[in-house]
Amino acid sequence: MDQSIRSKALAILNRNRIMTVATLRPDGWPQATTVGYANDGMTLYFLCARQSQKVQNLARDNRASLTIGADSADPMAIDGISMAAHAEIVETADEISRISQLLLGKYPEYANFPINRDEIRVFRLTPKVISVLDYSKGFGHADLVEAGKKILIVYYSRTGTTRIVAEHLSRVMKCDLEAIAETGDRNGVLGYWRSIIEARRQSHPPITAPRKDPSQYDLVIVGTPVWAWSVSSPIRSYLAASRGKLPEMAFFCTLGGAGGDRTFNQMEGIAGKAPLIRCAIRAHDVTEGAYREQLNPFITALALPRYADPL
Hints:
Number of helices: 9
Largest sheet: 8 strands, antiparallel
Radius of gyration: 24 Å
CATH architecture of the largest domain: 3-Layer(aba) Sandwich
CATH topology of the largest domain: Rossmann fold
Number of domains: 2
Distance between the termini: 17 Å
Low-confidence stretches: 305-311
Shape: elongated
């Protein structure tokens, strides 16, 4: 996010004390409610009764939209924030204590207000898309920005070639990395032929349970070597096991010659969804270092917001 836009957004958050948060009812109707809030940077927190409709709505669908702003006598001084966010219940005592201090800093008049913590829920709102309204830049002007995505790169590498690409993406995009592991041995000639045979048979060999849950991310990038014009069998196992839990996806592969398109089509079929973008990198280009420049369009495409209009 541009620093000037971030500064403006923080000024609005710090200046105001009330927001309207909208959640989805079971019947599909949006429910808008006015609540107080505190913020730590761009992350917002609010309290509500444990038995409230908001809690029930967010337990079923944790997406929320909110707006913050105030009236102004000068039309060209109007500003405010609209935000799409994911809501999570805060459970740990230490974090609840920290949030309580943030709320007291914003609402000191509630210092002696009796609150039974067993009767409330504390929610964290993590922004995904933010629209900063600022009429000082022109009537109706709004800057739309996508908050930092939570990205996971998942890959398998037998020889280390795919690992080099995955680690480069992780460094540049500043995201989490998960190497798929298995108990079997793929070293040497026997390991090579085992890999080829499994690829041709479209096998699903056992893999070690992944450490990271893909459903907790906004984007999962999956990387595989191409074996016999096919996706590697460990990645086949991962995609099959993760089907139904995968968010937006992107694919990359490393290969010696042909087979990239066939591999990507296989990955899409196993995952049950199309990727946002695909990128095939030749093993020779990894060895020579040319892969870094080839990855730039891939990285840029994933970094750009895909929202055309303000919220």
